[in-house]
Amino acid sequence: MTGTMPSRPHDIADDLRRQITTGRIQPGERLPSETVLAERYAVSTVTLRRALAALQGEGLVEKIHGKGNFVRRPHRKIMYVGGWGTLDPWTAAEPSLRVSVHSTTVPAHGHLTTLLKVPVGSPLAEFSCLSVEEETPHGLAHIYMPRDLAPAGVLDDNSACRQAFARFAVLGPPPATTRETVCTRPPTPDEASALRIGSASPVLSVTRVSTDFTGRVVEAALLTFPGDRVDAVFTIHRVIDERQAQG
Amino acid sequence: MTGTMPSRPHDIADDLRRQITTGRIQPGERLPSETVLAERYAVSTVTLRRALAALQGEGLVEKIHGKGNFVRRPHRKIMYVGGWGTLDPWTAAEPSLRVSVHSTTVPAHGHLTTLLKVPVGSPLAEFSCLSVEEETPHGLAHIYMPRDLAPAGVLDDNSACRQAFARFAVLGPPPATTRETVCTRPPTPDEASALRIGSASPVLSVTRVSTDFTGRVVEAALLTFPGDRVDAVFTIHRVIDERQAQG
DNA sequence: CAGTGGTCTAGACCACGAA
DNA sequence: TCGTGGTCTAGACCACTGT
User: Fold this and answer.
1) Among the four given CATH numbers 3.40.50.10230, 3.90.1150.10, 2.40.50.1020, 3.40.1410.10, the one describing domain B78-233
2) Distance (Å, rounded) from C-alpha B61 to C-alpha B59?
3) Rounded to whole angstroms, how far apart are CA atoms B106 and B125?
4) pLDDT, tens digit, 9 for 90 and up, residues B169-197
C-alpha cells in the first residue's frame, strides 16, 4: 500500500471519481468487480456499493446487473421540445438517437382511464419506447391511445414502420390542445433499471395529453428522462391579430 | 404475530406508509425506535433503515439524529402554470400564498447577459421573490428586465405596489414569445436554505425568457421550486384557420 | 456453469440529544 | 448516563449474464 487509503464511501467515491475524470479509467470501460474493489479499499461490499451508488447518482457510473460497473460517457443535455405533437419529439430533433418500440393492446385501468377519459376496460393501444443514445438509455415513453385511433400497420410487427411512426408520426388530424405536465420525482424501480440510474437520481417526468377539437383525448404519453440528461423547453408564440390586440 | 409480516424494505415501507396515511400514526408523532421496529418486522436495522429512507424520500418521514423518526405533515402539490406572462403565475392561481419581493438594480453579468441579450454592465432591474404557504417556503424567483422597461413605482419601496406587481402585472405589451426551459437539479446551498430542503432533494428549475415583437428580451425569470411541491403545466391550443388546415 | 451485481443479516462501534 | 439514529463489517444467499 504505497498510495492513499480512503476508507469511507465518500473518500472511495472521490478516489474513483478522480480516476474517471482524469481519464485513468476510460469511458465505456468496466470497473473491477465490486468484490475486488472492496478488497482493494479494505472495506465491506456494502460500503463500496455506497461509493458506487454516489457515482451512479452523479451520472459517472452505469451499473448493469450481472455484467459489471461501467464508466459512463459524458453526455450533453438533450432538449425535450414541448408541443410538437409527435410521439417523441426529442427523438425527431436528435437523429443520433435510436428508438425501440414495443406495441400491444391493453385494457384501460386505473390512472389511464382518468387521463384518457375512457371507461375501465376499454381497449387501448400501448407503445413502449426506449430511446438510446450511443448505448446509454436516454428516455422512456409509455404512450396510450384509444385502440380505434391507432394507425393501421403500426400494431403489426413491422419494426421499420414502428420506427418511423415513433419518430415522426402526427396522429391523424393535429390535436386541438396539448397539455404537458412536468414534475420531478424519484424513478420507479423499473425506470431506474431501464434508464440505468440510481433510485435516488430524480427523473424529469412529462405527462402529455392531446385532445382533438371534439374534446376527445387522442393520446396520453408518459415520458421519463434522467434528470441530468434532458431539459424540457416550451415556447408560446402570441399571434398578432385584432381579437388579441383588443382582448 | 397475528397480522401480516412484511420482510423486505419495500413491504415494510408499504406497511408504515399505510399506517401514516390512514392516520394510525399521526403527523408530528414519533415512530418507535429503529431497533424496536427492526425487531417488530424481524429484519436487521440496515433493512429497516432502507424502508425509512424510502419514506423520507417521499416526504412522509423526518429523521432527527438522536431523537427519532417523526411523521411529517404532507403538503399538496401546487401547479406552476406556464405561459401566463405574469411575474409568478403560480401565485396568481394560489391566493393562499404570500410573496415577499425585494427589488434592486444590478449591472448585467455572466449568464444574464446571454439570457437578456444585453451587453455586460447594462443596468437591469432585479426582483427577488420568495413565496410562502403557511410558513413553509414554496418558490423562489429571480426576475430580471432591462432597467428602462421596469414600470415606474415598482422600484420604489411601496410594498403594496410590489405585491400587486408580483402577482398580476403583465409587463407592458404582452410578449410575442415566451420560452420556458425546465430542468431538475440539486439545489444550490442558497436555494436549499431559502426553501428549507435538503441538499439531496432536487428542485424544479424554470427559466422563462419573454421577447417582444421586435425580438428584444423584455424579461428573464429564474424560478426554483422544491421538486416534491410543484408540478409545471404547459398548454398549447391550436387555432383553426385555413393556413393550419392546409399545412 | 462461473462471475457478476443485489439484498439481507447479526453484531459492533460511533455520534447526537436529553435528562 | 442512556437511548437514539448513523456507519461499518463479514458473510450468506439470491438474481442476472454469458459461456
Assistant:
1) 3.40.1410.10
2) 6
3) 6
4) 445 566 788 899 999 987 776 777 777 66
State, as a whole number of angstroms, the distance between the CA of B10 and the C1' of C5: 19
What was the pLDDT predicted at A202?
A: 86
Put simply, the answer to whether A204 touches B182 (Cβ < 8 Å) is yes
pTM equals 0.79
Cα A217 to the chain's mean position, in Å? 23
Closest CA–CA distance from residue B1 to any residue of chain A (Å): 30
- Choose among A174, A182, A231: nearest Cβ to B238: A174
Nearest to B231 among A46, A175, A182 (CB): A182
- Does at least one atom of strand C sit less than 7 Å from the CB of A56? no
Q: How far apart are CA A229 and CA A133, in angstroms?
A: 11
Helix (H/G/I), strand (E/B), else coil: B238? coil
Domain boundaries, chain A: 9-71, 78-233
Q: How many CA atoms lie less than 13 Å away from A5 in the CB half-sphere?
A: 8
Q: Which residues of chain A have pLDDT under 70?
A: 1-7, 84-97, 151-174, 239-247
Dist. CA A123–CA B219, nearest whole Å? 47
What single-letter DSSP state applies at residue B147? G
Report the candidate in A231, A225, A232, A166 with the shortest Cα–Cα distance to residue A191: A225
Residues paired with residue A103 on neighbouring β-strands, in sequence order: A127
Decide if A170 contacts A85 (C-beta within 8 A): yes
Query: Among A150, A129, A149, which residue's Cα sits nearest to residue A139?
Result: A129
Distance CA A198, CA B8 (A): 19
Q: Is the distance between the Cβ of B47 and the closest atom of strand C smaller than 7 Å?
A: yes
CA distances B233 to A142, A230, B132, Å, are 19, 17, 20
Q: pLDDT digits over A110-145, tens only?
A: 888 999 999 999 999 888 888 877 777 888 888 888
- Which amino acid is located at B18 in the chain? R
Q: What is the rounded distance in angstroms from the CA atom of residue A88 to the CA atom of residue B222?
A: 27
